[in-house]
Write a structure and sequence with these properties.
4 helices; mainly alpha
Length: 71
């Protein structure tokens, strides 16, 4: 994951706040941090939720992973 997990959590006010926004339990997010990645199905939800923060946080899919050049 390219985005710094601590920065992401700080933007949302912590693990518990992000969990509430995504309607999941905080230990799930703790697991993401432990494994070092966010499930791909959650990335669009996080991007949309970030837009609704005050102030909004601009996130894009490439903030979560780096695409390698395909040759």
């Amino acid at each position: 994951m390219d985005i710094d997990f601590k920065t992401l959590l700080r933007a949302f006010g912590g693990m518990t706040s992000l969990a509430k926004i995504l309607n999941i339990k905080a230990p799930s997010i703790c697991g993401w941090r432990y494994r070092g990645h966010i499930p791909s199905n959650r990335i669009p939800q996080i991007i949309e939720a970030a837009k609704r923060l005050d102030p909004p946080v601009h996130l894009e899919p490439n903030d979560f992973f780096q695409l390698e050049d395909v040759k």
